[in-house]
Design a protein that fits this description.
The complex is a heterodimer of chains A (about 240) and B (about 140).
Chain A: H1 2-21, H2 32-40, H3 67-83, H4 88-115, H5 127-143, E1 149-152, E2 159-164, H6 186-198, E3 203-209, E4 219-225, H7 227-236
Chain B: E1 3-9, E2 15-20, H1 30-50, E3 61-63, E4 68-73, E5 79-84, H2 90-109, H3 123-133
Antiparallel strand pairs in B: 1-2, 1-5, 3-4, 4-5
Helix pairs in contact in B: 2-3
The chains are: A alpha+beta (about 240), B alpha+beta (about 140).
């Protein structure tokens, strides 16, 4: 059922790209749309094919996104997802999947920005530095601050927790009582999972809200590492 | 100088939020409150048409011997109504209403679990409103 809803959308996209392909044979005359745009905002030396992928990546390094615009977008994402799932577990899984797609891109961009210009680019291969990258670099890249703590699970050796006392992305969200197990930080969990996967530390990552006095939105990102990671870590010791 | 209650009326005239802060007004049954909110919505629509000189934003204050009722109409038709003691200053009540509007934008409109135009059940909004009214 859910997939039936998705396909018409995809077909709209594909016809859209086809119509833009139609312009290619007559490359001498630029498509009418781009000519109109050029006349509105003249960009120096901007050809008709100048798109988001041609812009310098470092230009937006320190730019910030409007929190309100973000809040409305995330709210719509949750409402869209909620219409297409049954149950809270499913909703969290979908949000996590959306986060995963953000995470793969964030990892690439983050590494490129941090290591791209350094003389000895390096890649973390040990577990603790990688967790520290998540806690500091990743959080800084997407939230503009570091996470509040990294903790190791007392019960299980392969579980680590990253704690954020006041996650910016769920600031305006009030979970209704009947859905109290839901944590919208599942998106963040997906981002973290993608990052760990990309660095070669496969793990299952979930988000749980653990309110504390003074921090009603406190969230724990629980990382359960794959056995292969623990075995490798043991061998590297 | 006391704030008795806050109502939020949606653009169709339905009462979507009602919260009492201090005693001082006779308690209302929820049905009475709904009727009263609907009536106020109607009166407001009439007062908006009464102005002899072009358009008007409708009534902003209704005063009685025992209480004063301040109304803030937003661009989208949502009304915030603040019931206060008669001594409450207009400017003060206005500032409270503006901050409540801000809290509404944050705690209600940005909350994905809130259906527009439906009764407001949002802990975030409750907490924000509590923080605004308490110090006053």
């Amino acid at each position: 059922m859910a997939y039936n809803n998705v396909h018409p959308r995809l077909s709209v996209f594909s016809t859209g790209s086809q119509s833009s392909l139609d312009y290619i044979p007559s490359a001498g005359t630029p498509p009418p749309g781009s000519a109109g745009r050029q006349s509105v905002t003249p960009i120096p030396k901007a050809g008709p094919s100048k798109g988001i992928y041609d812009r310098p990546l470092n230009k937006t390094r320190n730019t910030e996104v409007s929190a309100a615009a973000y809040a409305f977008l995330f709210s719509e994402m949750i409402q869209y997802t909620q219409k297409r799932v049954h149950g809270i577990g499913d909703l969290e899984k979908r949000l996590s999947l959306l986060g995963y797609r953000i995470g793969t891109r964030t990892l690439e961009l983050m590494i490129w920005r941090n290591e791209g210009n350094s003389k000895n680019p390096k890649r973390e291969t040990r577990l603790l530095p990688v967790l520290y990258v998540v806690h500091t670099q990743l959080w800084k890249a997407i939230f503009g601050k570091t996470a509040d703590a990294i903790e190791k699970s007392v019960e299980n050796d392969d579980e680590y927790m990253i704690i954020d006392n006041d996650p910016p992305i769920t600031k305006y969200i009030s979970i209704p009582k009947e859905m109290s197990q839901l944590s919208c930080s599942a998106l963040t969990a997906g981002i973290v999972e993608a990052l760990l996967d990309g660095l070669g530390f496969p793990a299952r990552v979930t988000a749980h809200s653990v309110p504390k006095e003074g921090f009603p939105l406190r969230t724990t990102i629980l990382i359960k590492l794959d056995r292969s990671v623990m075995e490798r870590e043991e061998a590297l010791k | 100088m006391a704030i008795f209650a806050l109502w939020v009326i949606n653009k169709a005239g339905g009462l979507v939020y009602q919260r009492n802060f201090t005693d001082g007004l006779a308690p209302l049954s929820s049905n009475d409150a709904l009727v009263l909110a609907g009536t106020l919505h109607g009166i407001h629509a009439i007062t908006a048409k009464l102005s002899p000189t072009g358009s008007s934003s409708g009534c902003q204050v209704i005063e009685s011997e025992t209480f004063k009722l301040h109304i803030l109409l937003t661009a989208t038709g949502t009304k915030f109504v603040l019931l206060t003691s008669p001594a409450e200053l207009q400017a003060q009540a206005d500032s409270v209403l503006r901050r409540v509007y801000e809290a509404y934008a944050d705690g209600v409109m940005k909350n994905p679990f809130q259906t527009p135009e439906m009764p407001i059940r949002s802990e975030g909004f409750d907490a924000r409103v509590g923080a605004i009214v308490k110090p006053a």
